[in-house]
């Protein structure tokens, strides 16, 4: 059965995204344990997205050039494990900066490579990409709940031990997983100029950025907003849990809804849900209301990410598929993460968290307009090609 041949990929994504939960949720707590100041912690947390901007397209290109996604994924997982061991032996701020940059240069691309491999293999095996990708969300959600209890029991100083177990498990599953069938066309560095000059791709990434910027701002500030509304830190974990598991449900059911609509129509729908989501959070009276709104995370992110990720495949040459995938992820998570953290911090300093979510609703609305205009442009372009 085709489904039986991809369970190793499901395991890879489950354990890798579980490891990401540990980094996203508990790395700031670990740095606080080391005695670093809030300013120093903020700088270190910005290094990861900054590293991803360059590292993700680079490793995507190398996987296309070397004609293997699996081996590059294994290289990134091994690099993450080794550099991570060094990172978590350090306690001095200035020593941590260059090491954490190298660490995220391996860690950040691994997620994109895993998704790229899953998307390619799913097409070759005739299974739904969402049915594979949902296991990443399940891993993230499970670890978001269990990780806090485990680290409170063994101590935050042992964060690397928990992280390393997840990475090793991801490596084992990846080593057993199938590789995708590569394009026979050779890839050179000059080939990437095609992507930079491709108007369809550049315009697509521009409106993707307007949506992903709001997504990444929320990643940074939702915890602060929940506390600001009077709840304690335990509600933050519950909010992540609800969001991630609704996301997994959307991924799991993608085989039913993706075939019914044009990808750009789905992206417009997702962008509209983002706009409604931030608008509701803008007027949220309490943290319980935020928990109810979190169910819309799965609809917005699940539809947007899954559809946009697969749509990129149609915009790039087959021999540059992984480069295109990781360029998209670099924009969605890397560039948006750097800009979002800085922009969000400025808005909160000048106004407050509620105002930030109001501005996010406005930005997402601009993303809806951009998506509608792009959809019209793309369909007209396709029709003109057919006519000629």
Give the quaternary arrangement of the chains.
Answer: single chain
Radius of gyration: 20 Å
The CATH topology of the largest domain turns out to be Growth Hormone, Chain: A
Q: Unreliable segments (pLDDT under 50, ≥5 consecutive)?
A: none
Order of helices and strands: HHHHHHHHHHHHHHH
Named CATH architecture of the largest domain: Up-down Bundle
- The total of beta strands comes to 0
Number of domains: 2
Give the percentage of residues in beta strands: under 5%
Membrane topology: Multi-pass membrane protein
InterPro entries: HcaT-like, MFS_assoc_dom, MFS_trans_sf
Organism: Alkalicoccus daliensis
Subcellular location: Cell inner membrane
How would you sum up this structure, described in words?
With 388 residues, the protein is mainly α. It folds into two domains: 1-182, MFS general substrate transporter like domains (Growth Hormone, Chain: A); 187-388, Growth Hormone, Chain: A. The chain is 83% helix and 0% strand. The protein contains 15 helices and no strands. Helix 8 packs antiparallel against helix 13 (295-315) and helix 13 packs across helix 14 (321-350). The model has no long low-confidence stretch (mean pLDDT 91). The chain crosses the membrane at residues 12-35, 41-60, 72-88, 160-180, 201-218, 238-257, 264-283, 289-312, 324-348, 354-374. This is MFS transporter, PPP family, 3-phenylpropionic acid transporter. One of its GO terms (cellular component) is plasma membrane. GO terms for molecular function: lactose binding; lactose:proton symporter activity. It is a multi-pass membrane protein.
């Amino acid at each position: 059965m085709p489904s039986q041949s991809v369970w190793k990929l499901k395991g890879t994504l489950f354990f890798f995204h579980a490891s990401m939960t540990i980094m996203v949720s508990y790395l700031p707590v670990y740095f606080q344990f080391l005695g670093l100041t809030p300013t120093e912690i903020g700088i270190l947390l910005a290094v990861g997205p900054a590293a991803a901007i360059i590292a993700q397209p680079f490793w995507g290109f190398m996987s296309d050039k070397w004609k293997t996604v699996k081996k590059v994924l294994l290289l990134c997982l091994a690099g993450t494990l080794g550099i991570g061991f060094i990172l978590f032996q350090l306690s001095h701020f200035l020593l941590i900066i260059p090491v954490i940059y190298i660490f995220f240069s391996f860690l950040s691309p691994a997620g994109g490579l895993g998704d790229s491999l899953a998307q390619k293999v799913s097409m070759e095996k005739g299974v739904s990409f969402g049915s594979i990708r949902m296991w990443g969300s399940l891993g993230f959600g499970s670890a978001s709940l269990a990780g806090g209890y485990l680290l409170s029991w063994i101590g935050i100083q042992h964060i690397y031990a928990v992280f390393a177990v997840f990475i090793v498990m991801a490596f084992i599953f990846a080593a057993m997983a199938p590789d995708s069938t590569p394009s026979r066309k050779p890839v050179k560095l000059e080939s990437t100029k095609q992507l930079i000059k491709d108007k369809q791709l550049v315009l697509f990434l521009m409106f993707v950025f307007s949506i992903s910027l709001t997504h990444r701002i929320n990643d940074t500030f939702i915890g602060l907003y929940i506390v600001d509304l009077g709840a304690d830190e335990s509600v933050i974990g519950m909010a992540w849990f609800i969001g991630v598991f609704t996301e997994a449900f959307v991924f799991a059911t993608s085989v039913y809804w993706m075939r019914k609509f044009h990808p750009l129509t789905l992206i417009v729908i997702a962008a509209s849900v983002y706009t409604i989501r931030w608008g509701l959070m803008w007027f949220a009276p309490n943290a319980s209301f935020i928990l109810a709104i979190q169910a819309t995370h799965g609809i917005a992110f699940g539809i947007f990410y899954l559809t946009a990720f697969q749509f990129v495949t149609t915009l790039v040459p087959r021999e540059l598929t992984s480069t295109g995938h990781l360029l998209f992820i670099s924009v969605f998570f890397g560039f948006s993460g750097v800009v979002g953290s800085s922009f969000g911090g400025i808005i909160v300093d000048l106004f407050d968290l509620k105002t930030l979510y109001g501005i996010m609703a406005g930005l997402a609305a601009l993303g809806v307009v951009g998506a509608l205009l792009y959809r019209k442009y793309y369909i007209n372009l396709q029709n003109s090609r057919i006519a000629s």
